[in-house]
Specification:
The protein has 252 residues and is an alpha/beta fold. It has a single domain (2-136, 187-250), classed as 3-Layer(aba) Sandwich (Rossmann fold). Helices cover 38% and strands 21% of the residues. It contains eight helices and ten strands. The strands form two sheets. An eight-stranded mixed beta sheet has the order 1-2-4-3-5-6-9-10, sandwiched between helices. Strand 7 (161-163) and strand 8 (169-171) form a beta hairpin. Helix 2 crosses helix 3. The longest helix is centred in the middle third of the chain and has 19 residues, at 80-98. 46% of the residues are buried.
């Protein structure tokens, strides 16, 4: 498997990306991996997944990219509209670069939220969409599990704050207002239900598993709990189980 860094400089963006594939000249299908809040393209979960997805599946590529304000991205303030632009640009690049419409998506946590928001706003361009521990209630996750009491107070007062895990991300009132305006629990996803899989660990202490279970039930989406898995699926055996489910769902 080859891992190669590249940038997409389009639509006023400079998007830092990483490509995993066996042969970049023989790619027939692309899986876009969307990392979580505070993450980056050098994501261990993405690398592990790519290793399994690419190794024995000729013509498969995985693209990981830095969301705005994440990883090596140069933007300073996180905005939902910029996230939408980045994802739209990456999908357009994948179609053009590899001359394919066979696109799949895998999103974790905040990346899962953004994928679902993309479907709600634009329709579904993917053959299949897999979500691991998606932050269905991203506003609740941000204010409940990510931000500290002081950061919540500053946000409530209209002040920008730096929040996150691996890397601190600058968010302000505009980002919070955007999350308030996009409550995925109020959006029907019935039209895409057959093409979505949700996997969630029962020991997730960042994003409540019940949020995913309820969302899946409301929209008749396949939901698989992974017993004992935490938010990041740190146990390799539990991560292996999730990857096997996702690759099987993709039908690769």
């Amino acid at each position: 498997m080859v891992a190669k860094y590249f940038d997409i400089n389009e639509n006023g963006c400079s998007i830092r990306c990483k490509l995993y594939c066996a042969d970049p000249h023989a790619v027939r299908r692309v899986i876009v991996f969307c990392h979580g809040f505070g993450g980056h393209k050098d994501n261990h979960a993405a690398e592990t997944f790519a290793g399994r997805a690419v190794a024995k599946r000729k013509g498969t590529a995985v693209i990981v990219f830095d969301w705005p304000c994440h990883g090596d991205d140069a933007r300073k303030n996180l905005l939902l509209e910029d996230c939408d632009t980045y994802l739209t640009t990456v999908l357009g690049y994948a179609r053009k670069r590899f001359d394919t419409d066979e696109l799949y998506a895998y999103g974790t946590s905040f990346g899962g939220y953004l994928l679902l928001k993309y479907l709600a706003d634009h329709g579904n361009p993917f053959r299949k969409v897999a979500l691991r521990c998606p932050a269905i209630d991203m506003l609740g996750t941000l204010l409940g599990a990510v931000a500290t009491d002081e950061e919540r107070a500053n946000l409530a007062a209209g002040k920008p704050v730096l929040v996150g895990f691996d890397r601190k991300v600058r968010v302000g009132p505009q980002f919070v207002e955007g999350l308030k305006a996009t409550d995925l629990r109020q959006v029907p996803f019935f039209d895409y239900a057959d093409d979505i899989l949700i996997v969630h660990g029962t020991a997730d202490d960042v994003v409540p598993m019940q949020d995913s279970a309820q969302f899946a039930d409301d929209n008749v989406i396949e939901f698989v709990p992974i017993e004992g898995a935490d938010h990041r699926f740190r146990d390799p055996k539990k991560m292996d189980a999730a990857i096997a489910l996702i690759i099987g769902f993709f039908g690769l």
